[in-house]
From TrEMBL:
This is Helix-turn-helix domain-containing protein. Signal peptide: none annotated. It comes from the Bacteria. Residues 338-378, 428-471 form the PucR C-terminal helix-turn-helix domain.
Length: 510
């Protein structure tokens, strides 16, 4: 008896150490084990048979395909019967309906085994069906959440793209459905958060958490490491700064407050502020409202010159004109590829629109002085649309670019700005001037200077922190420096047909 009791105790101890089929099945519900294919494989192994799971279209989801009666499968999928069983000389077969959240997408689990389905086998099959239904519901719920997040993300991007082309009315209509009141404001700030591209989804969620319903948070379509935030609440800036503090390696650049119609301008400011944030201890910076050249020009003369330069576009339908102006403004601020991604169009579309503007203005955007001049006109045009810069005296008749650049205030600003480069023994000022004259092409500038192209690039990069402006990347910072060279006479004024009263294509003096 003693020996028998000892043997029974050892057997029970062994059973306690060996997982039962129920425990094994429950293990498949652990976060690391939730795999439908693994469960179906486990079921086949446990029942010493073959198992298959197919969806409502007949596609094999998991397991090994079995020859099944199509009519029987159709009855189960239609809900006319919940299960079926059959037996022949080859073995025994069970078919069970797998319920899905969407009743139209039910599945069928089939198990074939040589031995009959006893109570144990039936229990295993029944509980496995329950686990599969649970996992499939969870997977569908997860997929639904993922689809909703993707749709919401796409909607945010669409709103941003509408703001970028100054269609604030449509942007407000789209936003009102999901975020009532988000764009019920006249002004907003744009922030750009830069971080590891692999961490962007997490950073987006954090941005949404700290800004709530007071900001439009968008994954930048042009740069994978950027998150764009259009914030309408003053507290958003501080909240985003706290996010930078919690995430080492991130940078934050912010714009000054701008009207919603100037979202593209604010975006450019935020990207420019990132360059300053890189050297700041707190890794955050807001665009400084420094002396911009257009603010040092005679406002009335600037308005008259801008209206005349852009007059060829006035013959276009309003929508076409606005589309061309917005695309050109972004195309001058960024590369055609980046502008295309931000606007949600192809780069060929961006280039085609800019070429049309070139044709209408009868000018050439490959010339940096032309780009800077047209950018000045487009920025002024946006300011006029905002109601800014409407005060001033009576404009002179037919103001030319030279008249705008001849003011003493602008000359003082230009000399001070470029004079910062004089302290460098490498003659950065000469290199920068040659590089601009070569259209920003380091190879052509190097030929003019009889140096290596890499030397030109290094000099231009060295000038950036001295001037506190981005130069390598095209944009408003570079165009300010170009205008400074034009104001000091270090570069020739660009040929603008409508700016030259002596040209046969220019309008007659009125």
């Amino acid at each position: 008896m003693a020996g028998q009791e000892g043997g029974l105790g050892r057997s029970r101890a062994a059973d306690a150490r060996t997982p039962t089929w129920a425990q094994e099945l429950l293990d498949h519900l652990r976060p690391t084990g939730r795999d439908v294919r693994r469960i179906v494989a486990w079921l086949a192994e446990t029942l010493h048979g073959t198992a298959s799971l197919q969806d409502h279209t007949g596609t094999l989801v998991a397991g090994t395909r079995l020859p099944l009666d199509e009519g029987l499968v159709a009855d189960i999928l239609a809900g006319r019967i919940a299960s079926a069983a059959s037996a022949d000389e080859d073995g025994h077969l069970r078919l069970v309906r797998i319920e899905q959240p969407n009743q139209a997408s039910a599945g069928v689990l089939a198990v074939a085994r040589p031995a009959p389905f006893d109570r144990r086998a039936s229990d295993i099959l029944t509980h496995t069906v329950q686990v599969l239904e649970l996992l499939l519901r969870a997977r569908e719920a997860t997929a639904a959440v993922r689809r909703l997040k993707r749709a919401t993300s796409d909607l945010r991007l669409a709103i941003l793209q509408l703001l970028m082309v100054e269609d604030t009315v449509s942007a407000r209509r789209v936003a009102a459905g999901l975020w009532p009141g988000l764009l019920d404001t006249e002004t907003a700030c744009v922030y750009v958060l830069e971080g590891d591209a692999a961490e962007r989804d997490r950073l987006v969620e954090e941005c949404l958490g700290v800004t709530g319903d007071h900001a439009l948070v968008v994954r930048c379509p042009a740069l994978d490491e950027h998150v764009i935030i259009v914030a309408t609440a003053d507290a958003a800036g501080e909240a985003l700064r706290s996010l930078v503090d919690r995430n080492p390696g991130t940078l934050l650049g912010g714009s000054s407050p701008q009207s919603l119609a100037r979202t593209a301008t604010a975006y450019g400011q935020a990207v420019s502020a990132l360059a300053v944030a890189r050297v700041r201890p707190d890794k955050a910076a807001v665009y400084a409202e420094r002396h911009h050249p257009e603010r040092l020009m005679d406002p009335a003369a600037l308005r008259e010159w801008t209206a005349r330069l852009l007059r060829p576009l006035d013959t276009l339908p309003h929508h076409t004109r606005a589309e061309l102006l917005a695309t050109t403004r972004l195309g001058l601020e960024f590369t055609a590829v980046s502008a295309a991604k931000v606007l949600g169009v192809s780069r060929n579309t961006v280039r085609a629109r800019m070429e049309r503007v070139e044709s209408l203005l009868r000018t050439d955007f490959t010339d940096l002085t032309v780009r800077a001049t047209v950018h000045l006109a487009l920025s002024t045009q946006v300011s006029l649309a905002d109601g800014q810069g409407e005060h001033g005296g009576t404009p002179q008749a037919r103001t030319r670019l030279g008249d705008l650049l001849a003011g003493p205030a602008l000359g003082t600003w230009a000399q001070e700005l470029l004079g910062r480069l004089d302290g460098d023994a490498r003659d950065l000022r000469r290199t920068l001037r040659s590089w601009i004259a070569a259209g920003g092409n380091a190879e052509r500038a190097a030929q003019t200077l009889a140096v290596h192209a890499q030397t030109v690039r290094e000099h231009v990069r060295s000038a950036e922190p001295v001037l506190e402006r981005r130069l390598i990347a095209s944009g408003s910072d570079l165009y300010e420096v170009v205008l400074a060279h034009l104001a000091t006479g270090e570069l020739e004024h660009p040929v603008l047909l409508r700016d030259n009263p002596g040209h046969p294509d220019a309008p007659v003096h009125g």
